[in-house]
Amino acid sequence: MEQLKASAANSSPLTPLGFLDRAATVYGDIPSVIYNQTTYTWSQTRRRCLQLASALSSLGVGRGHVVSVLAPNIPAMYELHFAVPFSGAVLNTINTRLDSRTVSVILRHASSRLVLVDIGSRDLVLQALSLFPQNSERPVLILINDDTFEKASPPSVDFVDTYEGLISKGDPCFRWVRPHNEWDPIILNYTSGTTSSPKGVVHCHRGIFLITLDSLIDWGVPKNPIYLWTLAMFHANGWSFPWGIAALGGTNICVRKFDAETVYSLIKRHHVTHMCGAPVVLNMLTNSPDNKPLENPVQILTAGSPPPAAVLFRTESLGFVVSHGYGLTETAGLVVSCAWKGKWNRLPASERAWLKSRQGVRTVAMAEVDVVGGDGESVKRDGVSVGEIVMRGGCVMLGYLKDPEGTASCLKNGWFYTGDVGVMHDDGYLEIKDRSKDVIISGGENLSSVEVESVLYNHPAVNEAAVVARPDEYWGETPCAFISLKLGLKKTPSEKEIIEYCREHMPRYMVPKTVVFKDELPKTSTGKLQKFVLRQIAKDMGPSRQSRM
C-alpha cells in the first residue's frame, strides 16, 4: 500500500480542553454547575473559564507555568480544570487536608507561579508560605471567597485579588492556548510521601484525553448525567471526571463538605445519577440514619482500598449500583475495573459481593496489565501466586517532576511498575493483596507509613517504630503504630499521649488510631523490621471502631 504520512489535518494534538467548547455549543442552556443557590449553564461556564484564563495571562501566567489551587468541591475548583490549562499553564490541585509543612514543600518543589486559595484554606497557605526560606520567590495569591462559609475577617494584603475579581477583568473572547504537542504537560499531582521526598506526577494532554474518554466508556456513563461531587477534585483530579462531565454535557452538583445527610438530600433534590467515592464513602452512606432505600438507582464508582464485601452488599441493598476499579495518581484515573458479567447475577448475594470486591481487568484504553515476579515474567493465573502489578498504556504519567531516578525506577522495561502486589485469577481478573511501598489507604487518601514513622522517631521516648495498616470499619484502613520504648525512662508515655504527639506534628488523617507497645519489634537476621508480622498482628486485632476524626 502507498505510504501515507501524517498532516496538519489529521494530527491535531489530543486534549480534553475542547470538551468545554463542544459542551457550550451543544448543551449551552443546560445547567453545568449547581452549588447551593448558584447555577451556571455550559455557555456561562465556558465564558467564565475564558475570562479567568485571560486574567491569568495578564498576571504573567503562561505556557509551562504551574498554577496551584487549594479548594474543596466548589464551582471555582471545577472551572480551574479548564481555565488554568486554557492559559497554557499546568494545573496543580493540592489536598486541603495536608499540613502547612507539606503544602510548603509542594509549592516550592512545583515552583508555583500563582496559588488560588479557598477561604477555608487561607490560614493554611499563609502558614505554608511563612516556612519558605528567606529571600525565596513566593507565588502570587488569589482568594476564593464563599458566601456559604462562616464569616471571616477581610483578606490580608498577601492576596492580590479575589477569584471573582479576576474573572471580571478577563476577556470572554480570549483565544485559549492550545498545546504545541499533545505530550505537553497539563496536570501536576503529588502522591503520598511529599514531606521528605516529593513525587510530583506529570500528565500530558494526550494522557488526560485518553483516561477521560476511557473512564466514561468503561463506566457506561450516558449523555447528560447528574453527577454529585462526593469525590474530592484534588484527589487525582476527581479521577478525570471534571473533563468527562463536560464531554457529556452533564450537570455537576458541587458540595463543599461530605455529609451523608446532605448527600441523600442532594440525590433526591437533583435526581443524581452518578457519583464516586472511596469505600469509606460507601460506609458512611450505609451507616447513616438517613439510609432509606433510594427512589431511583444511583451509579456509584468506588476505588482506593479494596472495599469489604459486606460494605458492597449493604450499599447495593439501598439502591446504589456499585462499580469497583483500581488506579493510581500515576495513571490519572481508574485503569482496571471489575467488569461485570451477566451470569454472575444468578449467584448468591455474598458471592456477588466478593466478585465485585476484586479489582478486575484492564479498561479499554489500557494496552496491558499484568502481575510479574522478580524475573519480570508473568505469575501463574491461579489467584495465589503473588507478584508486582505492572501496566502500560496511553494514560500512564510522563514521569515524576525533577526526579529522574524515581521516574526510572518505576518506568522500566517498557512497563510502569506500580509497587502494588497482587494475584491474577484464572478468569483474568486482578486482585490486590498487599502494597510493597507500605502505603496505607485511609478514607481514599494515600499516606506513607515511612512519614508517620519519621515523626514517631522524633518522640524522645521512642526507641523503634513501625506503622502498618489496620482494618477499620469506617475508613477502610487506619495507621497502627508498633513502638518499643527507650530503656530507663522516668515516665513512660501512654497510647493517648503518643497519639496527641502525632496530632501536633502531622496531618490529622495520618495520625495512628492504634498504638501498640512492645519490648522489641520483630526483625530479620539482618536487622530489618518484619512488617508482615506486624500486619498480621494488626489484622488479628480486628477492625477498629474509633471515631471519625
> Strand sequence of the main sheet, in spatial order?
2-1-11-10-12-13-14-15-16
Task: Give the biggest beta sheet.
Answer: 9 strands, mixed
The first-level CATH class of the largest domain is given as Alpha Beta
Work out the helix count: 17
The second-level CATH architecture of the largest domain is: 3-Layer(aba) Sandwich
CATH topology of the largest domain: Rossmann fold
Q: Kindly state the mean pLDDT as a whole number?
A: 90
> pLDDT under 50 segments (min length 5)?
none
Q: What is the gyration radius calculated from CA atoms?
A: 24 Å
How many structurally independent domains?
3
General description of the model:
This protein is an alpha/beta fold and 549 residues long. It has 3 domains: 44-205, Rossmann fold, CATH 3.40.50.12780; 258-435, Rossmann fold (3-Layer(aba) Sandwich), CATH 3.40.50; 439-540, GMP Synthetase, Chain A, domain 3, CATH 3.30.300. Helix content is 30%, strand content 26%. The chain contains 17 helices and 27 strands. The chain has a 9-stranded mixed β-sheet, sandwiched between helices. The longest helix is centred in the first third of the chain and has 17 residues, at 42-58. GO terms for molecular function: ATP binding; medium-chain fatty acid-CoA ligase activity. Belongs to the ATP-dependent AMP-binding enzyme family. One of its GO terms (cellular component) is cytosol.
